[in-house]
Design brief:
Length: about 240
């Protein structure tokens, strides 16, 4: 039960209220602010509740993913989802358009909050999704320069030495691991040095051998591997 004002009189500086006691009317009373019969004379605001199915969204840089979003009006799910108002905590990491599609822009994480209300007088209850953007997977293979001067191996003639450089597109700071497998070639037949920090290896031919020197190359951040074969050839 609650008291409702029926009349108000002012006489000789005295304010006189005429009250009646009645049950709270959940339809017309503004229960939140304690105003009786308010919604008989004013438009009652609707409560719009936005719901995002995904609590966390993980995607790769430059990839897109559409959120599953619904909006309820006064507790009833709307048949057609209206255009959501989105706020991105860090717009350098991710963006979202009016189709609720998220695009990964840079590696990192941010929050995206969505809400909706039809008029300024309405009440909007929003929802938030955490977006995690991972580095774009590298699809390129390891490339060794200079490339083979033969279809199956690189021939180094006796008395000569060359430096070979490893590279892979899309990786700014590759982590190289280069290992030489002589395959039975005696160490006196060649010279070799490896610089994993630079992704290079140097090989020289001291004397001819029929077997192939094999350099096995791997890049740890991508998991890519490659093998490079060198034949020690005579001067002729």
């Amino acid at each position: 039960m609650a008291w409702k004002v029926n009349d108000m009189l002012e006489q000789n500086g005295v304010l006189e209220l005429h009250l009646t006691r009645s049950a709270v009317d959940t339809t017309y009373d503004d229960i939140t602010n304690g105003v009786a019969d308010r919604w008989r004379y004013e438009t009652k605001p609707s409560i719009y509740t936005t719901n995002i199915t995904e609590s966390t969204l993980t995607l790769n840089q430059d990839d897109t993913s559409q959120l599953t979003v619904s909006v309820s009006k006064d507790g009833v799910v709307m048949t057609e989802t209206p255009t959501i108002d989105w706020v991105v905590s860090d717009s350098t990491i991710a963006s979202i358009d009016n189709t609720n599609t998220v695009t990964g822009l840079a590696v990192g994480s941010c929050n995206i909050e969505g809400s909706y209300k039809a008029t300024d007088n309405d009440i909007a209850i929003g929802d938030t999704v955490n977006v995690v953007v991972n580095a774009k997977p590298v699809t390129a293979d390891i490339v060794v320069t200079p490339a083979y001067n033969d279809t199956t191996d690189y021939k180094i003639k006796q008395g000569r030495s060359y430096t070979f450089t490893c590279g892979i597109d899309g990786v700014s700071e590759p982590q190289w691991n280069i290992v030489l497998y002589p395959n039975g070639v005696e160490s006196s037949y060649y010279t070799s040095s490896i610089d994993n920090s630079a992704g290079t290896f140097t090989c020289g031919c001291t004397t001819r051998n029929a077997n192939l020197l094999e350099y096995q190359i791997s890049e740890s951040t991508t998991g890519k591997t490659a093998s490079y074969y060198i034949k020690l050839a005579s001067m002729i």
